[in-house]
Amino acid sequence: MSFHRQGAEDARRKDPAVWRLRRLGGVHLLLFLLASTACGGSSAPPPQTARALPPANPVATQKFLTASELMTGKKRDDVRAEALLKEALAIDGYLWEAHYNLGVLYRRRGELRKALEHLKAAHETQPAAREPLLALAETHHALGQPAAAAELLEPYLRAEAADPASRVAVTALLREQGKHDQALEQARGALIGDATNAAALLEVGRIYRAQGELDVSELVFRRALTLDEKSPRPHNELGLTALARGDTQLAFDHFETALRADPAFAPARLNRASVLLGAGDYAGAAAEYAQVLKQDPGHDGAQVGHAIALRAQGKHSEAAAEYQRVLARSPNQPEALYDLGVLQSDFLDQPKQAVDSFERYLDVAGDGPAREEAERYVERLQSRAAEAK
User: Is residue 161 very low, low, confident or very high in pLDDT (cuts 50, 70, 90)?
Assistant: First the structure.
């Protein structure tokens, strides 16, 4: 079963970060920080020289702003957002922020190579912008290109005065790559600059948990809790640590505490749903996913989870409708395509539609066990079709 860890994983899903764009006259825009924990801090540039750019075209800017609003919340419409961002770039090719948001949109869908193209364009247009560089490194990592990711991160690793927010972002990337010693070095650098940096402490705890040092991990998360007693994040992390110990009940209690601190904190509710799903309480899991969707109708992860819970209850047509809702706003969302293919193949007796879903998934998915399984599904389904003739 998969759990929704608060950190770079969660930031990739939904967490918006406010980015102040001086080119656009100080307008505050909602952008999505793919590779960072986005727990506050400055948006100081990395150790690259800022490129002087001409003033942004106001028509392109307005299209970009509208697209940004469509990328989150109840009005989410990725298809329209994608079109507007492309229109903005056709008007103003220097609008690196539009390239960045397109990269975020494609990364969220799982279209990694398209994401790479636009994130690279954003970084090359404005090398001093932190977010595109870190998102580009994360996408290289997701594509199985660690050397390219490491090359992009090198300026951060050499910078003695990197701001704490950048260090935390780099820590998350290094942790995901399994480079725990380097990750700890960056997190400690952030803590030297600010010993009360809760985001850095959470990353330290995640690193120790990844190394299997669960007692140390728990101590670090409890320290983070003393710094921010009202935050749900340390409780969520303590729950994940309890799961790593195999203590499902304690984990559930921690997730419950996180939700008492903030009833709208989606990661803890999603983790509760995952626990219930794994325990066979499909109706309970469906209710948790539905609660997230009530708060955020455009949450792909919650909608896919809800569909899985419905399928497990035998509500196959309802599950299919949920997947279609995801694909209506994100046509190439990989989890929805894969799970829809499974539903069509194994439960709805729709082999042709299943092959289409799996082939669409293979067009956008990265490497991994799910890709191999999708390839096996296509091979089996096509063999059956040939035999039927």
Answer: low
Cα distances (Å, whole numbers) of residue 126 to 54, 85, 99, 132 = 12, 17, 11, 9
pLDDT of residue 319: 97
Adjacent-strand bridge partners of 17? 31
Instruction: Report how far residue 369's alpha carbon sits from residue 46's, in angstroms, rounded to the nearest whole number.
Output: 35
Q: Exposure of 32 by Cβ count < 10 A (0-12 exposed, 13-18 middle, 19+ buried)?
A: buried
Beta strands 27-32 and 16-21, pairing class = antiparallel
CA pseudo-torsion sign 24, 112, 127, 131: positive
User: What tens digit of pLDDT does each residue of 177-207 get?
Assistant: 899 999 999 899 889 878 899 999 999 999 9
Which residue, among 34, 29, 69, has the nearest Cα to 298 in the 3D structure? 69
Phi and psi dihedrals of 2, rounded to 5?
-110, 145
What mean pLDDT is predicted for residues 11-34? 28
Count of residues for the chain? 389
Find all residues with CB under 8 Å of 334, minimum gap 6, and list them.
109, 110, 361, 364, 365
Q: Report which of 193, 135, 122 is spatially closest to residue 162, judged by C-alpha positions.
A: 193
How far is the C-alpha of 330 from the C-alpha of 108, rounded, in Å?
9
Q: In this structure, what token pair is assigned to residue 284?
A: 């309970």
Indicate whether 61 pLDDT > 50. Answer: yes
Q: In the numeric block, which tokens belong to residue 22?
A: 């001086």
Backbone Cα Rg of the chain: 21
Predicted TM-score (pTM) of this structure: 0.75
Please name the helix (run of DSSP H) or strand (run of DSSP E) that holds residue 87, with its range, or none: helix 78-91
Q: If you average pLDDT over every residue of the chain, what do you get?
A: 84
- Residues 69, 46: contact at Cβ < 8 Å? no
Tell me if 318 sits within 8 A of 338, measured CB to CB.
Answer: no
